[in-house]
Design brief:
With about 725 residues, the protein is an alpha+beta fold. About 40% of the residues lie in helices and about 15% in strands. Strands 1, 2, 3, 4, 5 and 6 form a 6-stranded mixed β-sheet that branches.
């Protein structure tokens, strides 16, 4: 399917200048040299668009760049039959209309010279300086002769690394891909599909992340037409029908369904004294298609949205207040991207109101400056690297970690970090597509006051590797908003996360972590560690249950709250002569616990802690409590439960802490780990009950242990 034919039905953007005839420009480009005192006619439109944004721009460098590009490309033809110079001219015009500064336009005119002609980077550097040379080098493809099948992924890697130092590299690449997609119809269908898929998976997400909505939306429509032609044609038919609906008399209606609401909105704002421009903004094809999928049946107002442009930030909220006062708002549609901007610099207020006839209209409210940034993204920054640049948008103020530096957003920094750990081109290419598919970001706060930018759906595992890199291999758990959480816990925007690292730096991740990792950095690091430690394939944090020591055989006992026979050293004294006294295993009372007793079958008395649930159930069942006190004997038996995160040598460290407290282990069990948590149960014989608090503190101090408590086994009423 022809890209030109595809684009002919796309929504027409209203511009102050008409669309340029590239074929005519191509003929003009071949007319030969021009006088030194004026620009060639072929780039007159570029100069006009550039001067609209930069009235005082020096165009002499554009003149020199055009002359070099035209002379070096002379004789080359595009597959569409046009002179090749029409391509760099078209790419440069796209950037000029978006407000790119002179250096970017100069590099855009030259972007294919080093790749396709005899011009060298040294010549570009000598004639146009280091900045232009860097941008041209950044978008120059690697040769298939040298890289084979890895040429495309390695070219993108090279381009992304260059973008990390200068975002203008990706601006040129996006404009280059847009013009190529516009003229893709001359290619074979299979090549069209291949290029469209790469555009969909890589270039469109990059355009979204850089905030260049003007390029992103048109690329989406062109890809939609190539990869899903039937749905594209159906959507185009719906848009055409909506724009030419017959009225009751059979005549075609000229009134846009949104026009009446737009007039009402404009009248309300005039009456309120708020200077504002109210526009109807048609949805592009993919947007209409998404709304149709979401709602099933399109309403007349679903083919566009109202755009209200004002002068100041405060005016945005004034407009919102008037709209919500004079119209019925749809509260679920309200979003404030001014107070909380998106990670790609986008700022706007979103709302929806119900018109007088019941029609619902979506409304975007933003300043003129916000609108420019929403359309052009990083291109609207001008030259963000100039020391005296005053062109940075207000949205670049560091409100969070993602936006502290608009020229190096957080997602790009993370991408540049993980790509260093993916030397294999296939791994890089696959991981890049998966990373860019994460289309929403969250910000979580560290306890030291810093922030972490993560994709939506990220877990504590991702946060650990984002904060600590390879040191996160020894992570044993986390606290999220002050509460203990497993490493698989999914984080939400605004959470506060504290990562807990083991003291043993030799410990490593479990294969289970891959189930929770969403970021490429985490997955690559975990996979690399597991590949390097095949002997730990079961996961060093996945501790197997310890073999329990044989327990002493319990004496006959009919109290279900009594787990095992009473110790002969038990010092509990009851007011029943010759009665056998047993300490209940469900709560393991020890001096100086407040205790009570109950007579069970056979005349024995079991002693429970007062707060024991089993004691409460027996008392509610009518059992008479027996008075119990502690005697002089100091020794006692107690059952402790230790909750911990799994790590190597944990069992050894716990038993060492117990032995240091002179406690004897009667029995011990370790339950199978669940989500990196391990539960240990120890029945201990203490020489002195007074040492129990110190023992529990010593066990809690073992790295990885986050809680130690007395056993509270559930028990039924006897």
């Amino acid at each position: 399917m022809s890209a030109e034919a595809t684009n002919s039905g796309a929504p027409i953007r209203r511009r102050s200048r008409p669309r340029i005839d590239l074929r005519r420009l191509g003929r003009v480009a071949l007319l030969g040299p021009v006088s030194r005192d004026r620009l060639p006619d072929a780039i007159g439109h570029v100069a006009e668009a550039h001067r609209a944004h930069y009235p005082d721009a020096d165009l002499s460098i554009l003149h020199r760049a055009y002359v070099l590009a035209e002379s070096s490309h002379r004789g080359q033809m595009r597959k569409s039959g046009e002179p090749y110079i029409t391509h760099p001219l078209a790419v440069t015009l796209i950037l000029a209309e978006l407000g790119a500064e002179t250096t970017t336009l100069t590099a855009s005119l030259l972007h294919d010279t080093v790749e396709d002609t005899e011009v060298t980077l040294d010549q570009v550097r000598e004639q146009f300086g280091k900045e232009v040379c860097y941008l041209v080098d950044g978008v120059t493809k690697l040769e298939k002769v040298d890289y084979g099948a890895a040429a495309e992924p390695e070219t993108f890697r090279k381009m992304l690394v260059a973008t990390g130092d200068d975002v203008r590299v990706m601006s040129i690449k996006l404009a280059d891909r847009l013009h190529n997609m516009r003229t893709l119809g001359v290619m074979r269908p299979e090549k069209q599909a291949r290029i469209a898929k790469v555009t969909r998976d890589v270039l469109i997400p990059l355009a979204e992340r850089l905030g260049v909505q003007a390029l992103k939306t048109e690329l989406e429509d062109l890809v939609f037409a190539i990869l899903r032609p039937e749905e594209y044609e159906h959507t185009r038919a719906l848009i055409a029908a909506a724009s030419a609906q017959p009225d009751a008399s059979g005549a075609l209606a000229t009134q846009d369904p949104l026009a009446a609401i737009a007039e009402n909105v404009a009248a309300v704002l005039r009456e309120a004294g708020i200077p504002a421009e109210v526009l109807i903004r048609p949805r592009h094809y993919v947007s209409v298609h998404r709304v149709r999928i979401k709602r099933g049946e399109l309403r007349g107002t679903d083919f566009g949205r109202l755009l209200v442009l004002v002068g100041e930030d405060a005016d945005c909220y004034a407009v919102l207040g008037e709209l919500h006062t004079c119209f019925t708002p749809v509260i679920s549609e309200f979003k404030d991207f001014i107070a909380a901007p998106k990670f790609n610099l986008y700022q706007s207020l979103h709302t929806a109101v119900v018109g007088p006839d019941g029609a619902v209209a979506e409304v975007l409210i933003r300043t003129h400056r916000m609108h420019k940034v929403a359309e052009a993204g990083v291109i609207a920054l001008g030259n963000p690297y100039a020391a005296d640049s005053g062109s940075a948008p207000q949205s670049a103020e560091p409100a969070d970690g993602e936006r502290a530096d608009p020229t190096r957003p957080g997602w790009l920094s993370r991408l540049l970090e993980w790509q260093q750990s993916a030397p294999d081109p296939d791994t890089f290419w696959t991981t890049l597509r998966a990373d860019l598919a994460q289309d929403r970001e969250i910000t979580v706060f560290r306890t030291d006051g810093g922030t972490l930018g993560l994709p939506a759906g990220a877990s504590c595992v991702d946060a650990a590797y984002a904060q600590y890199g390879d040191e996160a291999h020894s992570c044993i758990g986390a606290r999220v908003n002050g509460r203990l959480a497993t490493l698989g816990t999914v984080l939400s925007d605004g959470d506060t996360v504290q990562l807990l690292l083991a003291e043993d730096a030799a410990s490593g991740p479990s294969p289970d972590w891959l189930d929770h990792a969403r970021t490429p950095a985490a997955r690559i690091a975990i996979t690399g560690w597991l590949d390097a430690h095949p002997e730990d394939a079961q996961g060093p944090h996945s501790i197997r249950p310890a073999e329990p020591r044989p327990e002493p055989q319990p004496q006959e006992n009919t109290d279900p709250g009594h787990a095992r026979s009473a110790s002969r050293t038990a010092s509990a004294v009851v007011d029943r002569p010759d009665a056998t006294v047993r300490l209940a295993g469900c709560c393991t009372p020890v001096p100086p616990d407040a205790v009570t007793g109950f007579v069970v079958h056979g005349g024995a008395v079991t002693v429970h802690r007062l707060e024991c649930p089993a004691a409460a159930r027996m008392q509610s069942a009518g059992r008479a409590p027996v008075s119990v006190s502690w005697g002089d004997a100091a020794g006692c038996r107690v059952t402790l439960v230790a909750e911990s995160f799994g790590r190597p040598r944990l069992l050894a460290d716990l038993t060492e802490a117990i032995a240091t407290a002179d406690a004897a282990i009667i029995s011990a069990t370790v339950e199978p780990p669940s989500e990196q948590r391990v539960r240990h149960t120890y029945t201990l014989q203490l020489p002195d009950a007074a040492g129990l608090p110190a023992l529990m503190r010593a066990m809690r101090d073992v790295p990885g242990v986050y809680d130690v408590s007395r056993a509270q086994h559930p028990a039924a009423t006897a």
